[in-house]
Amino acid sequence: MLLHIIRKEFHENLLNVRFLAACGVSLLLMISSIAVLTRSNEEQVVDYQNRVRQQDEFIDRFGHINRLGWMSSTKRGPSHLQSLVLGVDEEAHQDNFISNPVPALITRLDFVTTVTIIMSLVAILFSYNAISGEREGGLLRQILGTGVSRRVLLIGKFLGGLVSLLVPFTISVLAGMLFLALSPSIQLQPTDFSVFAMLLLASWFYVAAFYGIGILFSSRSHTSGQAILKSLFAWVVLVLVIPNAGPFLAAEFYPIPSATKLAQEQYLITDRERDAILVQRRYAMIESSFSDLKDVLELPQNRIQERLKSDPALNERFKLYAKGWDEIIAVTNREQQAKYAKLEEVFQRRSDVQEDIAGVITSASPLSSFVFIATDLTETGLEADRHWGRELGEYNRSLGTYADAQYKKAMERDPAFDSNDYLDLRARPRFQYHPAGLLERVVPDLPQWGVLIAFNLIFFAAASVSFQRYDVR
Description:
Blueprint: H1 2-14, H2 17-62, H3 68-71, H4 102-105, H5 111-127, H6 132-136, H7 139-145, H8 150-182, H9 190-218, H10 224-253, H11 259-289, H12 294-297, H13 301-310, H14 312-362, H15 366-377, H16 382-413, H17 438-442, H18 446-468
Helix pairs in contact: 1-8, 2-5, 2-8, 5-8, 5-9, 5-10, 8-9, 9-10, 9-15, 9-18, 10-14, 11-14, 13-14, 15-18
């Protein structure tokens, strides 16, 4: 009997204009969004490569160890799966060679938007009259009069209607992914196909949750008009209100300093304040230990080198000065970096707490869980940012080690060599990003998968309880 009900529900939806509309809308949105984002991704990749090349040329030509940090500052490159999921979009707050303000003003459509907004609405349109509509037509009483239990009927309607919705959606997703796989500008990896499968599975759970909402309110309403109004109200709360209110409420409950203020503090501590300290310490060192070099130090760089070559004793004396000056620079840099690191640690700790609070609040909606899963799977979300930051930290340490070694070699060749003099860094290591493995992406989001499944169980259980008490007359 259950299979009969599932087939009946599926066939009815198959012959309904809603099925054709769902096929057309999902296919159109999926293909068009992937096509547009693939083109955008191509431009972002070219832009990123241009920026990296310009940065490399600048360091090759003007590199010196004193400002290597900001010279080698690296921005995260675009993910090849941004053609599917935009995630954390850098384009809205980053200047680049193809700077375009329009995307910052108009939200672009991607897979996540299609699923969370469009398909959730379509799910409600498929399910809002599943119970109340048949009651209005008198068919519900006849079906129950044949001896079918209410629980079996509800399960059959839920499964049959959901399958009829997921069939056109799955076809459109597979078509979109085929388009992506055939795109010459996108080089898919074997892991990406596992990502596609898990992304599709998460989409099914998300759409099923909203299909359950429609079933729930259909079994709590005497008319289809009442059912769709209640379902749409729940949609607004779950899709629009909670996800947008979560970060705002978290900021109100647990405020943190602005990132702009932290950047200003970094500039003051590691740049202006550091330079002022270096001037004072250099003056104190010269006055206390190297007053005999005052006249030499006031000469231009080329004249200093000439004096050192012609006077071996002065050359040895200058080596001592240069060694002491380097120690002062190293100590001052460590002190100022440690001072800033404390501020950054406090900021990051408070930021993580605020993020956790926002996550708890927004977990009252299935949308947030789905967004976290989708962006983490495609390496376009917060976890990817953290992974990228860890890899960048490792690279910066290796770059610093290499630059220090080159600087010491330059000092050995020329005692008058200064930290602001040109340093040949053309053989330096280049940053190479290694994406996180599939397991590293999935494990942190297991709670989010649990939340999605829990929403399905809660909505279906609530619909089952409501239908047991439903007046079919």
